Amino acid sequence: MVVLSLKVLGYRVFEAENGVAALAIWEKHAPEIGLLFTDMVMPEGITGLELCLRLKQTKPTLRQILCTGYSGDRIKPAQLAAEGIAYLAKPFTSEALANAVRACIDKP
Questions:
Q1: What pLDDT, in 10s, does the model give residues 42-60?
Q2: Is the pLDDT of residue 74 over 70?
Q3: Strand (E) positions, the chain?
Q4: Any idea which of 9-13, 73-77, 95-99 has the lowest mean pLDDT?
Q5: 66 with 88: CB under 8 angstroms?
Q6: CA 71/CA 19 separation, integer angstroms
Q7: Domain containing residue 23: CATH number
Q8: What gap in Å lies between CA 33 and CA 12, rounded to an integer?
Q9: Structural domain tally of the chain?
Q10: Domain of 69?
Q11: What is the pTM of this model?
Q12: Residue 47 burial (10 A CB sphere; 0-12, 13-18, 19+)
């Protein structure tokens, strides 16, 4: 749903099935990537949060949205915000996704 929704909105999307694949895409396309949208839980041993923090070190201007189905007791949105990471709780609608992406891109 996320990839299709973002493409319909006109965004260019690089899709990775896990954190390792995301890092490989990053190595090839980092200059083209302005926003990372990732799930907290991914296969292959790297979490979405770890991916966010790692990529932010190499490109401090990277906008990031972390989504998860975990409740606020496992994920602290205020802590994510302090790291410059936006948070989107699952389940979410296409409209909520569009609003989150636009807000993240427009953030000063």
A1: 887 899 999 999 999 999 9
A2: no
A3: 35-39, 63-68, 85-89
A4: 73-77
A5: yes
A6: 22
A7: 3.40.50.2300
A8: 9
A9: 1
A10: 2-106
A11: 0.90
A12: middle
